[in-house]
């Protein structure tokens, strides 16, 4: 069964599933400049198959305990970016977004950089430069 964070309110109960937290974290990581893909690549696919986790959305894994949430994010960074700075921004943005939208306390955001993406230059653009 899917882990859910539950809040007792005056008019009833609110439950937030792990999958919702995964979606929020994935979108927050994607917003950071220098992040090319969240959860893309050979290693992400292999990790998904080996861990067989239900609560993964595009390379995000969430573990919620009674007190806090731990988030693992697997991503690719654009070539030329300072990887440690991109990872730090991802951590901050994911923590801020998840806490603001869900009310959960995020204890850890672990960033796993699995690839560096080199953008291809269009050959048509190169031909114009050579002329």
From TrEMBL:
Lineage of the organism: Bacteria, Bacillati, Bacillota, Clostridia, Eubacteriales
A Pfam family of this chain: Asp23
Protein name: Uncharacterized conserved protein YloU, alkaline shock protein (Asp23) family
Family: Belongs to the asp23 family.
Stored InterPro entries: Asp23
């Amino acid at each position: 069964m899917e882990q859910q964070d539950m809040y007792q309110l005056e008019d009833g109960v609110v439950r937030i599933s792990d999958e919702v937290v995964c979606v929020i974290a994935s979108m927050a990581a994607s917003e950071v400049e220098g992040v090319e893909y969240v959860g893309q690549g050979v290693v992400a696919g292999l990790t998904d198959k080996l861990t067989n986790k239900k609560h993964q959305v595009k390379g995000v894994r969430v573990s919620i305990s009674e007190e806090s949430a731990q988030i693992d994010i697997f991503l690719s960074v654009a070539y030329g970016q300072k990887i440690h700075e991109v990872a730090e921004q991802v951590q901050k943005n994911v923590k801020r977004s998840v806490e603001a939208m869900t009310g959960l306390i995020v204890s850890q955001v672990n960033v796993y950089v699995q690839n560096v993406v080199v953008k291809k230059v269009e050959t048509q653009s190169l031909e114009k430069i050579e002329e």
